[in-house]
User: Which sequence fits this backbone?
């Protein structure tokens, strides 16, 4: 009996310890098994690489986005592109713009750069501002929470699109990219602020936060080292879902004529111009529309999958 116990003890000691999987590892495995997440990630990577490589792609194509090719359009027909499908061919891979002959492919890749830059920058400002306000409001509570919560309610009560149109219209000569980032962020930060505030109210009463206070930790240390890391999942999910919303907002503002101004390319601006030609050259309207649709869909699928993967109550854990 004693020999068998000793052998069992030795076998148990020799066996490697069983380690639990980290939440990040679990989320990664769930994302890797999700076809929608993989599809969304592939499309996002494709458009990000296209935006980053825009100068290289236009060199390969041979046409800058502001260059006019008058030989590619038929002046007798009012500027209709020569050839089928809007002039698509070896010279112009996605055809040319009706009326001026600018290369559609070059404007699409530079439009991706502009749209992603504005969307990512405005999302970053929104998340940083909303996270800071939400942390302070949720942690300190009392009058601080009351004042900051009323400010968030006030900003959320504005009809954002109407105010965006008004603010962008009164500054026609300003840097449009910077102005779009600031104005879009101005009306978006309270949404992440309320999410972070609610999570902070829950986390600040946890045992590890009380232990940090007992050990002498002050407010900034508790906020940044104890509470904020535990809010990473909802903040990350909000960030992923806010990017497609901001891409759509930028495209809508450019479509309405108050966003990015020519000659800077924008998908919304191209869709707006394409409305004048959709019966004659439908490809000019469809190409930026498809790019916008795929980008928004990809980020939305990725955000939904990330939310499900990080949900501790989700199935399959």
Assistant:
């Amino acid at each position: 009996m004693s020999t068998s116990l000793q052998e069992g003890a030795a076998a148990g000691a020799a066996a490697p310890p069983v380690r639990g999987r980290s939440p990040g590892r679990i989320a990664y495995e769930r994302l890797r098994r999700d076809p929608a997440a993989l599809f969304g990630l592939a499309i996002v990577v494709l458009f990000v690489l296209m935006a980053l490589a825009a100068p290289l792609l236009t060199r390969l194509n041979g046409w800058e986005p502001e260059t006019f090719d008058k030989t590619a359009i038929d002046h007798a027909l009012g500027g209709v592109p020569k050839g089928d499908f809007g002039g698509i061919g070896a010279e112009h891979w996605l055809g040319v713009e009706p009326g001026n002959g600018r290369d559609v492919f070059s404007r699409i890749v530079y439009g991706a750069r502009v749209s992603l830059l504005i969307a990512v920058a405005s999302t970053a400002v929104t998340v940083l501002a909303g996270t800071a306000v939400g942390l302070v409001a949720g942690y300190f509570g009392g009058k601080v929470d009351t004042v900051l919560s009323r400010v968030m309610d006030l900003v959320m009560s504005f009809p954002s699109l109407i105010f965006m149109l008004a603010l962008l219209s009164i500054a026609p000569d300003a840097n449009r990219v910077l102005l779009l980032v600031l104005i879009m962020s101005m009306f978006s930060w309270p949404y992440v602020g309320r999410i972070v505030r609610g999570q902070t109210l829950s986390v600040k009463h946890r045992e590890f936060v009380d232990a940090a206070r007992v050990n002498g930790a002050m407010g900034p240390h508790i906020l940044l080292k104890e509470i904020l890391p535990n809010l990473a999942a909802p903040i990350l999910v909000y960030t992923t879902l806010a990017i497609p919303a901001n891409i759509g907002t930028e495209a809508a503002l450019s479509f309405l004529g108050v966003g990015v101004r020519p000659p800077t390319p924008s998908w919304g601006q191209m869709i707006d111009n394409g409305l004048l030609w959709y019966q004659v050259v439908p490809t000019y309207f469809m190409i930026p529309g498809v790019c916008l649709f795929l980008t928004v869909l990809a980020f939305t699928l990725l955000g939904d999958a990330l939310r499900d993967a990080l949900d501790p109550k989700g199935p399959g854990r």
